[in-house]
Specification:
Blueprint lengths: L1 H5 L11 E6 L5 E6 L5 H5 L2 H16 L13 E6 L10 H17 L4 E7 L3 H10 L5 H4 L2 E5 L29 H6 L8 E5 L4 E8 L3 E9 L3 E8 L2 E4 L19 E4 L5 E7 L3 E8 L9 E9 L1
Parallel strand pairs: 2-3, 3-4, 4-5
Antiparallel strand pairs: 1-2, 6-14, 7-13, 8-12, 8-14, 9-10, 9-11, 9-13
Helix pairs in contact: 3-4
């Protein structure tokens, strides 16, 4: 039965491919599966074992739902990453395992699929879906999103997942390493995506009590944006966290530091002795034509 499957140990070959963590923008638990990291013989060679493993994953994910809370989501967000995955039709073991699993999901978990996003899949997979889409009911079709090859500079998955629950390889802030991500889960600063147009500026504020700290995280996915923050009339370099004037070569004449995709994830924790409102400024006014620059930003007083 399901109870036995939940406690079953499938061995090392089945570990590290799936991650259940956080929630999407609609509050649904996220299940990320990376099929390209799976050994074909060990994982797909026994269709029944493969099915039990996937059922175990579904049951663990379902336990993250909170049906007793009014208005709480009743479905899951699933992300399927097919990077480096063998094309399903080229290996009978994969085809058979997927066929058995699909039938089981349709018969036993039809209402659990809130949305499934497919990324990094072979082109033939996308072409096949496009050809069959005309025969799929709109309600069912709306549950599937085909993104193809992903590039962190585009951050397409940010349309569905908050930055602090999205791995860095997809444009988010979460560590790509599973152990590191789980260790940092309780320390993540909730973040948002800011999309900036040409010649635009954006500001965000955080109120900090006297003697408090402000923790913030910034990531620019493409090109560059000038970043500063001001506390009690003093301007700080958005990258180093040092007062402007104390840094050498990082800030320009206005005290703004350029943060780009190459800067990676910038995290700082800065003391604000007198407290007050900390103002973060993101400046893209120097860009005449580049639109849609994405800044991932989160800050909190602590």
């Amino acid at each position: 039965g399901v109870a036995d499957i939940e406690s079953e140990d499938f061995g090392a070959a089945f570990e590290g491919h799936d991650h259940i963590y956080g929630v999407d923008l609609q509050g649904r638990p996220i299940v990320l599966s990376c099929f390209g990291t799976m050994d074909v013989e060990d994982v797909f060679g026994d269709a029944d074992r493969f099915l039990r493993w996937r059922v175990q994953l579904m049951e663990r994910a379902i336990k993250r739902l909170q049906p007793w809370k009014q208005g709480s989501p009743e479905t899951l967000m699933q992300i399927h990453d097919y990077k480096d995955c063998v094309v399903i039709g080229k290996d009978k073991r994969i085809s058979e395992a997927v066929k058995v699993f699909t039938a089981c999901m349709s018969n036993n978990y039809p209402e659990m699929k809130g949305q499934t996003v497919f990324i990094n899949f072979p082109w033939i997979f996308g072409a096949l879906f496009a050809a069959l889409a005309v025969f799929i009911p709109d309600k069912t079709k709306s549950k599937f999103v085909m993104l193809g090859p992903t590039d962190p500079s585009r951050g397409e998955l940010l349309d569905f997942v908050p930055p602090h629950y999205l791995p860095q390889r997809y444009g988010g802030l979460l560590a790509d390493d599973r152990a590191a991500a789980e260790a940092a889960a309780g320390e993540l600063v909730a973040a948002e995506r800011i999309v900036m147009g040409a010649r635009s500026c954006e500001t965000r504020t955080v109120d900090v009590p006297a003697g408090g700290l402000v923790r913030f995280v910034i990531r620019v996915l493409a090109h560059g944006v000038k970043v500063t923050y001001t506390a009690n009339g003093e301007t700080y370099d958005g990258s180093s966290g040092e007062p402007v004037g104390a840094t050498e070569g990082a800030a320009d004449a206005e005290g703004a530091c350029m943060i780009s995709a190459e800067s990676g994830v910038v995290q700082r924790e800065v003391a604000v002795a007198k407290g007050g409102t900390v103002v973060f400024t993101f400046d893209n006014s120097f860009s005449l034509f580049t639109v849609g620059k994405t800044v991932v930003f989160g800050a909190e007083a602590c």
